[in-house]
């Protein structure tokens, strides 16, 4: 039986065409989006894949708007769940900021393959050749073809496929190595002939073929393989075979009998480490040029000046693999250069040294490490001429043979290195200019460069930007340094420590070392000390290392205008920011700001999170804020923040006017600031701006400087409709609470009335109705004291809606009647639409469906007249539900599909929930499985936005679906969840409905 088709409960196969098997048979996967989503999740099994990554996998550069992409992804996920029999979402989970697929051991062929390769290599190193052969053969048999070839063109599977193929080739070589140790020389010849034809430049395979032929008593053919390989390498690449293969040739020439001793078989089929044969010195290169022999002393031996490898090196698997793959890639006519860049303390040098040690055996002519002192405190960067002198001395050139001119030294260096395999680490470079003369010209050399700056000007270099560690890896590093036993039972404290360290390796090493040297401390004790410190970068220091000092060197290298922008950016209260926001902070034109931002980014003092969006590493943010406190006056800092809040307030109001023009008269409109603002081209542009800046807008509205001015109440009033419309209930509660407190302190009665109204609305949407009533009544009193009849009308409407939710229908109708009369007298038709919608909802709850339909039709007609598309969509959804209750399923479905389409286009998640629930109710009678999918989709949205009232309604409906599908056990579970939520919400009438399902009082 093909191992990929072995029986089992669940099997996911990616090593070939995507293939999924469940207990009841094979799953026929659709092409396109669902397949791409499944593969992306499986490649990252048991890890969260963000919606952004999934959208890129499905659509590539042709991705739709964010709202459309997210909605489509939900549909793909729901479809996959149905195919996988995962209606409960236990396998394919929704986990912010995306999704996760859970796989168990033995379910995913890629994991089984990689683990088999690892175990087989380990067995081979331990001398267990038979076990290694079995393990590796089983792993290799899992391949059914090339992976990822049946995915959409936009899915970039090439990189992952290359990694898997490289792992397969290494496993193949290990399996051949095991066969050689087992004496299977004759059987291997044909297989190795085919492999060397397929991989003509892979020297290790040729070495194994030579050894197999030699063991099969075909010495002449073995030597011919070497000659053919040498001719190809010289003709195509201009290089000689590696020292290891050349050494093997000499031993075959000498008919060395020990080559057939299993103990002498290396993993690649060459000679054992350190062995020599005849006159062939390990590391020598046939055909070395005249410059080498003329300038290198006769007693020269290859030099290794690498620092010791970091004993507790942790993580960086993908980055290590990428650097190793670059070194192993088919040779070209150019030297292989990898440039590693990243902020101070991120672990660039540790990674470069770790990789250099892993590759050292491949570069037998020497491994050289040079610190270029680009960002070393108290030292000037090493001049290229001085660095060249060190390189030349490292390869045996005597001091008196060094030319004085740097250009001549560079020529000599390239000549000496031309016929050698050298590994060179150029650490701590200041820029590309410092490095350029130090590069050898030989394709047999590898250069690893590290720098705090990106170096796009370094031609031919493969760039690798190093980020901070993943949280789990950061915790593991902490435990490696202080001792794993020190963190047992203290995992939460350690996780918080590494978070405070910003997951920065340097900071983690310092804190873990501090714990390691204090035997009486616990991680909890260390955490308390760190939390007590105002400036962590200053606190994180040892005798010879300091995070603050590392940051200070980077800061001191900046020009004055760059330093000023860095400081002021530290005042930004949000998470990330655009050049427009920084222009407002610094009071600069946009073009000049963008130039400065790029410089800070190149110095790794800012992170580009997405195109045009920048942020700080957490510790750098604290460092920047500390500099702002020490170098900016209170007045300049406050002025910068007020400019920023002016920018946010004006642009937010402009965006809200685009999205909700019929309510423009209700919003404040801060004047246009002196600094540039973002252009908004239509609804999508306005919505995208608000979506992108939302976290910053909340941070601005809750900032003490905003609270002491009008900025807090302005932002609360400007953003109220948007926050409710898109389901940002928790954020709206935070912002409106801050605005209420701010206006109480400043004595702004009108602002206080508006903030109280908006705060009540947030409580309402979160199902906290008693608190909503309290705030609405306080706002009503404020509006009456202000003689603001428009505000009074809105509050009466909202109070009616609150009473309706609590089942107090008579009070609700009374308030709606008062509000309707007031809106009519004022000629406010937009307000009348809202009241009509609410009246229809009350009639529906009291089962007066004919009257409800009449109200909803009136609301729909009036909404279209006034151009209120948001309320139009809500009226459609309400009408569809009413038609369903009137026994008109076809018409109800048609109307609800219209409502869902409008809500999806507008990104109105509240109405999406309502329309999805309505469609599910209509479909339950004919297709309960489809109804269940609709209601689960609505439930996901409820959970995402925190709408507990609608979540209770979803659980009620899901229970009904399971009951219709003949599963009363699951039905009862969901009804009980619904009852629990309605009890918490004090929604008595809805609770009675659920209790009738449960058969209780």
Description:
By secondary structure, this protein is mainly alpha-helical. Among the domains are: 3-131, Winged helix-like DNA-binding domain superfamily/Winged helix DNA-binding domain (Arc Repressor Mutant, subunit A), CATH 1.10.10; 317-465, 3-Layer(aba) Sandwich (Rossmann fold), CATH 3.40.50.300; 471-546, no CATH class; 924-1001, Serine Threonine Protein Phosphatase 5, Tetratricopeptide repeat. It is built from 44 helices and 13 strands. It has a 5-stranded parallel beta sheet, with helices on both faces. A 3-stranded antiparallel beta sheet has the order 1-2-3, with no helix packed on it. Helix 24 crosses helix 27. The radius of gyration is 35 Å and the shape is globular. 47% of the residues are buried. The model is unreliable at 1-8 and 266-301 (pLDDT under 50).
